[in-house]
Amino acid sequence: MTIYTTTNSSLQKPGVLTRIGSRIGLVNWLGFITLLWKEVRRFLKVPLQTVLAPMMTTILFLAIFTLAFGGSERYVGEVSYASFLAPGLIMMAVIQNSFANTSSSILISKVQGNIVDILMPPLSAAELTLAYVLSGLARGLTVAMVVGIVMWLLIDISIHSWVAVIYYVISAGLMLSLLGMIAGILSEKFDHMAAMTNFVIMPLSFLSGTFYSIDRLTGVWYQISHLNPFFYMIDGFRYGFIGTSDSSIWVGAVSIAALDILLYIAVWALIKSGYRLKA
């Protein structure tokens, strides 16, 4: 019996075949799913902090602002203020938690020095990016479902367009997960991350029409509001609930999709180059 052996020692190294396969369009599914599940389990292991705390904060916002602005007697257009406010608060929770999931994961790995455990396996930059992004989206959707169920029990909310609701919550979760990755990669310590959250994410969230209709603004402030991508997320998502919007749903859908693509390319390039990831 003849035994054939290969003389190409490089093919005997673990992961080489996977890397070769990646170059011809194949995906390292095992590595991708493992990283994705690791990131999902990271926030599922502390649900009190990652799911229940955002839910409680959002419900408190709903209660305080509804009472402050007249309760059930206040209307925005043809819907009650509570029904108008609820979709914006759900989307704000998605924005904050999707961003927090990816940004904290990357920054903590860098600070603790175990980011090398993510970079060494035979995973391409595209696979790494997608795994992190989907984990951030998973956290955002989990919080959105929990908050939505609680709000449905407390106030009168209904779905006008499932297509709009699903599209905008997914596209928004993807965008903030990508922004979180950029923030995590660029930040070198937690102060940098706090600055990004407090001076960029929070202001854009609160000034995006979450608590009010953009139509109440006039002049230059009205125009500036339409430059805020968070406005289109909340406006489109709210349309899925109440059937009315402050801007074109199609303009918002295309704008968010284009930003998602550009942000994905930016994150892919950063991971590909190893900028502030490799020592």
TrEMBL record:
What is the membrane topology here? Multi-pass membrane protein
- Protein's cellular compartments: Cell inner membrane; Membrane
- Which spans are transmembrane here? 20-38, 50-69, 81-100, 130-155, 161-186, 193-214, 249-271
User: Taking every annotated instance into account, which residue ranges of this chain make up the domain ABC transmembrane type-2?
Assistant: 45-274
For this record, an example GO cellular component is: ATP-binding cassette (ABC) transporter complex
Among PROSITE patterns, the record links this protein to: ABC_TM2 (PS51012)
Q: What is its main location?
A: membrane
Q: Which residues form the signal peptide?
A: none
Q: Which GO terms describe its molecular function?
A: ABC-type transporter activity
Q: Pfam families, alphabetically?
A: ABC2_membrane (PF01061)
Q: Which UniProt keywords apply?
A: Cell membrane, Membrane, Transmembrane, Transmembrane helix, Transport
Task: Give the family from UniProt.
Answer: Belongs to the ABC-2 integral membrane protein family.
Q: What is this protein called?
A: Transport permease protein
